[in-house]
Amino acid sequence: MSIVRYTSDNHLKLLQNGDDFFPALIAAVDHSVSEIYLETYIFFPDEVGRRIIDALKRAVLRGVDVHVIIDWLGTGPKLCGLLSREFSQSGIQYHIFNSWFKRGFVRLHRKICVVDHRIAFVGGINILNDLRYDYNRKQMLASPRQDFAVKIEGALAMMIYQEAIRLWEQTGKLSLWERFSRYRSLYLKDRIKNAKTALAGFIVRDNFRNRRTIQRAYLKAMGMARRRIILSTPYFAPGKRFRNALASAASRGVEVILLIGCGEFWVQDSVAQSFYPKLLKDGIKVYEYRKTQLHGKVAVIDDSWATVGSSNCDGLSLFLNHEANVVIRDAYFAQDLKKRIEAAISDAEPVFQSSFMNRPWYKRLWYGTAFMIYRVVMRTITWGDYN
C-alpha cells in the first residue's frame, strides 16, 4: 500500500521565508469568497500578525466564513485569551488547541491555510515576523529566520481542505447533522486544474489514523535513494529506525547531507551532537547552521522527491504532535528547493570527525547523557513509540 496518495493537476510554488509567504497568504485571503481554514502553532500579533488579522477581518466583512485554530502552548495562554476576544468581536470563528494540556502533551504544530478549497498553504512558517525570535518574542534575530512553505493550487488543495475540516470538527462542538452536512459538502465542490501540473501528496501525523505516516514516508524515500539525500531540520533527534535509514543509504554510496539548526536550545543541540560520532563514521555529512534561526523542515532526495512541512526530525514531531507535510514528485520543484538548501549550507559550519573528537571529554559525556534523558522522556510521553 502506498504511504503517500499522490494527485496530479497541481500547481506548486515554493515560498521561502515571510517575504514570500505572507504577501501570498494575504492575497489569497483578500480574494476569498466562501471560507478560510487557518491553523498555526504560533500566532503573534506583531506588525506581521496584525496584517494577517486585518485580512481575516476584511474577509469576514465580505461574508466569508473564517476558521482559525491556534495552539495554546505555542501562542501562549495570555495571548490566546487576547486573540480569542478579538476574534469573537470581529466574527472570526476560532478554536484553541489543547488548552491546559487537557489532551495530554500533544500540540498542534502544523501550519496550514486553505482558502475556498482551491488554494492551500502548507509549511513551517508561523504567524510572526521573520526577524522575531519565536520563543522569546521580545528578542530580534540578526537575520531573517530560514523557513519554507508551499502554495498549492489544484486537486491536492481539496485533500488538505478535507483534513482541515476534520481537525476543526475534532476540536469543536458540532451536532451529528452539522458534521454530516459538512462532510457531504466536500464532494459537491468543483476541483480546479492548471496548465502546469505536478505530482504531490499531503500527509499528516496525528495520534489516531496516522501515528507514523510522516516517518514512513521519509523511510520509504530514503530506502529508495540512489544518489543524494539532503535534509534540513531545526532539531535532529529521530528514533533509531530513521538514523539507520540514513546510515543504510550512505553505505549504498548515497551522498547524505544533514543541515541542523544550532544555538536555539542548549539541551536540544546536545542531543543532536550525541549522534555526530556515528553519523560521521557512517559517512554522513553534517553541517550546523548558526547564522540565524533555522526553522525550515525540508528534504530533497535524488533531485526528484521533496518534502516541505511542519515536521521536525525529532521525537516530538515524528511521534507526538499534530504535523502536516506536502510530498512532491517533481524535478523542477525539487531542484529549486535543493538550490535554496544548498545556499543555507554555504552559510553553515561543517562538522568534522577529527575536530569533534577533540572536544573536551566532559562535553562529549554530556552529549550522551542528554540523549539518554531525552530518550527516557520521549518514550514516556509517546507510550514507547519513540524508537
Automatic annotation (TrEMBL):
Keywords carried by this UniProt record: Cell membrane, Lipid biosynthesis, Lipid metabolism, Membrane, Phospholipid biosynthesis, Phospholipid metabolism, Transferase
UniProt subcellular location: Cell membrane
UniProt similarity note: Belongs to the phospholipase D family. Cardiolipin synthase subfamily. ClsB sub-subfamily.
Keyword Lipid biosynthesis among record annotations: yes
Superkingdom, natural source: Bacteria
GO biological process, one term: cardiolipin biosynthetic process
An example Gene Ontology CC term for this record: plasma membrane
Residues annotated as domain PLD phosphodiesterase: 104-131, 290-317
Organism (species): Oxalobacter paraformigenes
Main location: membrane
Stated role: Catalyzes the phosphatidyl group transfer from one phosphatidylglycerol molecule to another to form cardiolipin (CL) (diphosphatidylglycerol) and glycerol.
Protein name, per record: Cardiolipin synthase B
Record field: catalytic activity: 2 a 1,2-diacyl-sn-glycero-3-phospho-(1'-sn-glycerol) = a cardiolipin + glycerol
Topology with respect to the bilayer: Peripheral membrane protein
Class of the enzyme per the UniProt entry, highest EC level: transferase
